[in-house]
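Below is one such protein, fold included:
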Amino acid sequence: MAKQYSDPSFWEKLKQYARVAGREVVETALKLYYCMQDADTPRWAKTVIGGSLLYFIVPVDSVPDFLPGGYVDDLGALSSAVLTVASHIKDEHVAQARAKMAQWFGAPAPEQVEVSAAQPPRLEEKPTSDSE
């Protein structure tokens, strides 16, 4: 019998393996999860997301998760889904994922904070001297 995606299985796997899987895998999975829960997301996109989340939660996959680097195939499946449904991942899905990440992992390190292209970081201006 084929295993099917379920919310309880998703949350169980995520909570159990979040630290081992790492921030990138977990945040990607969460963005997809929240997108799939949105009533505005079309059925075809939910199917793509469900397939990638199923791959993530099923214990048998290309690279066993218990091996070093074992989540690289999961990240590949999740990333492929993100690319496929990117136009349906809303800012609110990203915000929900980041809120959950902050709850589980704490605030991201400064190098992990994304900077929006619309709002480049402000650089401190150095005073210039007229004598130069």
Summary: Residues 115-127 have pLDDT under 50 and may be disordered.
